[in-house]
Amino acid sequence: MNKDLTQSQLDYAVFLPSISTFYSTFIGKQRFPDPVKGHYVDPDRIPAGLNGMEGINFLDPDKGVFNYGWALYSAGHANLDLTKTIEKEDMIRSRDRTSSWLLGDSGGFQIAKGLWEGDWKNPNCPKAAEKRRLVVDWMEKYMDYGMMLDIPTWTFQDPKASKASGINSYQDAVTATHINADYYLKNRKGNFKVLNVLQGSNHEDAERWYEEFKDYCNPVKYPDNHFNGWAMGGQNMCDVHLILKRIVTLIHDGLLEEGKQDVMHFLGTSKLEWAVLLTDIQRAVRKYHNKNFTITYDCASPFLATANGQIYHNIRIGDRNKWSYMMSPSIDDKKYATDTRKFSEAIVQEGVLADFEDSPVSEVCEVKDICVYKPGDLNKNNKEGKTSWDSFSYALQMAHNVWTHIESTQRANREYDAGRFPNMLIDDEIQLTMFKEVIPRIFELQDREKSLALIEDYTKFWMKVIGTRLNIGKKTVNASTQFNNLFEEE
Predict the structure, then answer these.
(1) For the chain, give me the number of helices (H) and strands (E)?
(2) How far apart are CA 149 and CA 75, in angstroms?
(3) Could you tell me where the beta strands, DSSP code E, fall in 288-390?
(4) Does residue 1 lie in a domain region?
(5) Are residues 397 and 378 in the same domain?
(6) Could you tell me the sign of the dihedral formed by the alpha carbons of 247, 250, 254, 259, in that order?
(7) 351/447 same-domain check
(8) Residues 69-103, buried b or exposed e (16+ Cβ, 10 A)?
(9) CA distances from 318 to 69, 397, 415 (A)
(10) Residue 297 in contact with residue 278, Cβ under 8 Å?
(11) Are residues 295 and 321 in the same domain?
């Protein structure tokens, strides 16, 4: 079992677990016992093999039962008050920056949902100005890279969000994003690097947005404070056709240069096929243009799955098949509250799942560590609930899911390098059948127009590569439900 996922990352595109505050709370609050109530979680409640709560802190290479040195945390979930000790975020705030790397999401999603109120298109709005300042200061102190505070172009489509944010049109989103970007330029001190976020819900809007905002990454225009890379939002994060055109354009616009714009992040990307196709792109750009170019991508699936009662239990990577990490409802029954069988063995023996792949976390758990409450037991609200889980049951299964998701991305890349391919990245109807053969050809040409023409030649192939959002590509050929894009059920 691989416990050092940092060492096995190799030259693959880097998956970033999008850490939930629910999860970080357990690690942080356990470090600050209450003088009266004691520890946040009774030490006797923690499986012995974890060696305490720090066992689920994967950012700590010494104390975690597994280690992985990359993650994402959102300003939209964070407490941005730097004057206070925020116990639940101590996993983030007190991490060792020499052994971990953190990307900060800016909180644009919170604006788009109407949760961060203010007239964002008005540069003098006090609420927006204060939030803008807090986000930059927070990133300055705790993040290695952070995204520019963009306003998603779909904000005005929700009447409630539109009213709360003052964003009533595409142009309003552009205006507000310029205000935020200019603030980043003028006020950051240089303790974190900035990713310029690209938005747009289709190819035309994405092109308009790029032309509008590309200069923020231009070291000629901004020699001392230009932005340091790119974050792909909207259609840019899930449409291979658009992605390849954008990267070619960036290269020939001089905006993907070594030491200046080295990082490109893809928001909300969870499919295993994308773990390998992004590696293909990263390797090709490194070989032919920028040796430091690094692609990162994030999702919150390991945490959201547990919140919905699901647990990862198997990784399926078969040649010319669909690749996926399998998740299903976990074991939850009060009759197991005193059961000392190993969790992974019990969940199979009881017929809850047909198979189960252990993680360094599940390896040390007994089934009673998950199914805690017996019939008649009262929960923290002093009531008898329907579930046998307490809140720490969720945290343990989240930790297991995080390991499995990271392992699945790395295993997919290993299998891909060994000559096994997902069905999505092969098309026998065209001359070059493999995605990994097409990509290097695009970037080795070193000619903008020739590269763009080659991309257009494979339009049919790109339409086969399904992203993790609806209506991928310029047509809706790939449209399918979000659930089916992300998950398979058994």
Answers:
(1) 17, 10
(2) 10
(3) 294-299, 310-316, 324-329
(4) no
(5) yes
(6) negative
(7) no
(8) bbbbbbbbbbebeeeeebbbbbbbbebeeeebbbb
(9) 28, 26, 9
(10) yes
(11) no
- Looking at the fold, whether 413 and 457 belong to one and the same domain comes out as no
Let me know if residue 2 belongs to a domain. Answer: no
Q: Could you list the residue range(s) of the whole structural domain that residue 328 is in? A: 310-417
Question: Looking at the structure, do residues 107 and 152 belong to the same domain, yes or no?
Answer: yes
Distance CA 124, CA 118 (A): 10
Question: pTM of the full predicted structure?
Answer: 0.94
Q: Are residues 403 and 455 in the same domain?
A: no
Kindly report the CA angle at 300 between 361 and 110, in degrees rounded to 5?
140
Domain stops at, among 282, 303, 324: 303
> Chunked in runs of 10, what are the mean pLDDT values of the chain (490 residues)?
96 98 98 96 97 97 98 97 97 98 96 94 97 98 98 90 94 97 96 96 94 98 97 95 98 98 96 97 98 98 95 96 96 97 98 97 98 93 92 98 98 96 82 80 97 94 79 34 37
Q: How many CB atoms lie within 10 A of CB 376?
A: 7
> CA–CA separation, 216 vs 223, rounded Å?
10
| Nearest-angstrom CA–CA distance, 273 and 421 | 9
What is the number of structural domains in the chain?
3
Phi, psi of 170 (to 5 degrees): -55, -45
Using an 8 Å Cβ cutoff, are 28 and 89 in contact? yes
